[in-house]
Design a protein that fits this description.
The protein is built from 10 helices and 13 strands. It is α/β, with parallel strands linked by helices.
């Protein structure tokens, strides 16, 4: 995993056996690397719908790493100390491809992983999302905000699936005293993003490197906040390691806010591309603003992002440049 500049290596803790569902995905694979580097045993479960074996290929020979092909909508019977539940397609193109399966992955997957954690008395972290806030009427978004979500739109399979998963986590916590953690992840980017996942950072970079027009949906004035994957993994680990009373939900993301036009301009500049910008109609229910209030993450986890957008984009552009050179994108 890419270390953050100037970052000291974390000290080894007592070795744990840790399950990461969705562990071959973009964020999951970086998390697996970090956990192995900390001396833990890692069991990576993925059905490879959006995960990629290339993401964890370098880990396969590690003596403390194990990979199993598994769909979390079915029960899993393993023995572990902690569970990070990251399994779910996270980009609109992928989660709208099979919306019923997306909803099942969030809801049935949460039920199955919570059942496993309950049996094992294991601590479990749910990778939730800023999409639970919908198209927010409150800005920036604090955890106390209940959101503005369309329950029957084309994005609802993901938005409402994640909201239901949060409900299940807190019901298991209240009813069974299960030690839970809920992270609301805001836009994350970095190496190992899927080149065709439809997310704005990967879209812009691939288009710029190919010299294609940069496609901006809407007027380009809608905003997002972008967190580099190394910062996100650190936030997830700090939440998991926090005292049991720190259940969340806790926003994890970068509070720096950028318009789509500003992001496109940065990508064009950093790639040296001559790509023009072209504008297309905005997707249904596309949020106008997205910015995390990370007050709780700062106070409860002593965490905040340290990698500025342009620095992270340089690493991400280099990754996609290698993919395109090899003809894998």
């Amino acid at each position: 995993m890419m270390e953050k500049p100037g970052e000291a290596k974390r000290e080894y803790h007592a070795r744990k056996r840790i399950l990461v569902t969705g562990g071959a995905g973009f964020v999951g694979s970086h998390l697996c690397e970090a956990l192995l580097a900390a001396g833990h045993e890692v069991l990576c479960a993925d059905n490879f719908f959006t995960g990629n074996k290339a993401n964890i290929e370098s880990l396969l020979a590690h003596p403390y790493f194990e990979l199993i092909r598994h769909d979390v909508t079915f029960p899993l019977y393993v023995e572990v100390d902690e569970i990070y539940n990251l399994a779910c397609p996270a980009s609109p193109i992928h989660y709208q491809h099979d919306p019923v399966q997306t909803l099942k992955t969030s809801v049935h997957g949460a039920i199955n992983m919570l059942g496993l954690a309950k049996r094992l008395k294991a601590r479990i972290l749910q990778a939730s999302t800023s999409e639970v806030y919908g198209d927010p009427n409150v800005h920036p978004q604090p955890e106390e905000y209940w959101g503005n979500v369309n329950p029957i739109g084309p994005r609802s399979c993901y938005d409402e699936g994640k909201r239901c998963a949060e409900t299940l986590f807190f019901d298991y916590h209240r009813q069974f005293r299960l030690p839970i953690k809920v992270a609301r992840i805001f836009n994350t980017y970095g190496p190992r993003m899927h080149p065709n996942d439809g997310r704005v950072v990967s879209n812009f970079i691939v288009q710029a490197l190919r010299g294609d027009p940069i496609t901006i949906y809407g007027d380009g004035k809608q905003t997002r906040s972008f967190c580099f994957v190394a910062d996100m993994v650190e936030g997830l680990r700090r939440l998991m390691d926090a005292p049991e009373d720190v259940t969340g939900p806790i926003n994890l993301g970068n509070p720096g806010e950028f318009t789509m036009i500003e992001l496109a301009e940065a990508v064009i500049r950093l790639t040296g591309s001559a790509s023009p910008m072209v504008f297309r109609p905005a997707p249904v229910d596309d949020p106008r603003q997205r910015q995390p209030d990370i007050t709780k993450a700062r106070s409860r986890l002593d965490w905040e992002p340290t990698i500025p957008l342009e620095q992270g984009l340089v690493h991400t552009i280099a990754y996609f440049d290698r993919l395109l050179t090899r003809g894998n994108a």
